[in-house]
Amino acid sequence: MAAKARVDALRAEGRNIVDFTIGEPDFATPPHIVAAGVAALNGGQTRYTAATGTPALRRAIAAKLERENSLSYAIEQIVVGIGAKHIIYNAFAATLNEGDEVIIPTPFWVSYPDMVAINGGKPVIVGCDESSGFKLTAAALEKSITPRTRWLVLNTPNNPSGAVYSAGELKALCEVLMRHPHVWVMTDEIYEHFVYGGARHVSPLQVEPALAQRTLVINGVSKAYAMTGWRIGYGAGPLPLMKAIALLITQSTTCASGASQAAAVEALSGAQQCVAEGAALFAQRGERIVALVNAIDGIRCLAPDGAFYIFPSVQGLLGRATPQGKTLDNDVDVMMYLLEQAGVATIDGTSYGQPGYLRISFATSMEQIEQGCARIAEAVAALK
Which residue range forms the structural domain that includes residue 279? Predict the structure, then answer.
């Protein structure tokens, strides 16, 4: 959000900015979903709904989880929120006491540690580097668990790295978790439909169903259906946890928009061709941006297995000087140089717990990808 605000400010000043900070699909919500939302408004669905979500949407979510993930939930075990972030925040609010620990592998979505800290918990950041594909290993997990550990947060496909955990990798992590029954699992699967090449999305509960009584599955319609502004996310988990989350919602936001929930029913239950088309488009863009970025001297990039971000290393640029004589000491310096010199907006890896990298979104047009990478190459060539 801060990066977007900076881009908007520069554009207001008349600067032409290629924006690679975007964390949402660049195409419109599919027409059949919009039509469902409009019909709901015209039909009078403008009042409060149940705090946990409408029965129709919770049934649609339960059917989706069964159909696509082979996970079985009663609708009482499902809570709808104002985006997936809303459910994550309330889960931490409902479960964390002062000093409770939450294991968060790097690179992480920027909100996880802050939401833990706001609710009195202690983020335990576990570094995962390129050698592991930016994925948590069983050994690293085992080493990080203490008697105060309350949660492990897993995000697959991952924002910002695009890493996708295989069934085997998840099985190894689950074997560790089975030895530590006090540790709960929060699995953020919001990018599940965007996987590329031979990668396949797998939920931890698909490989270890015995963890169901201490696992919270997080998902939503924002990414797959280009519905970020509709603000609908959901969680599925053990009934006592879901009741606690619902109680917090009743005393804070009350409920999600009724019309948005109606649109989400159509998204989950209606034609799914739009999801496949979006995934195919992102696959093409991802392949192109990886090739362009890897052709730039001093930058290297792993091809993402999922999501719509690349996470290139810019460590090869550190120590070089800009045309103005400033030395690039870290990834934040590189980010600012590309913004000011090239008019290309990216996000520093430090914000994701992984210094020396940049997050670049390819949720934008091929034209913008080509133009932005050409600008980056020109700016890098100007370094001394």
Answer: 2-23+274-381
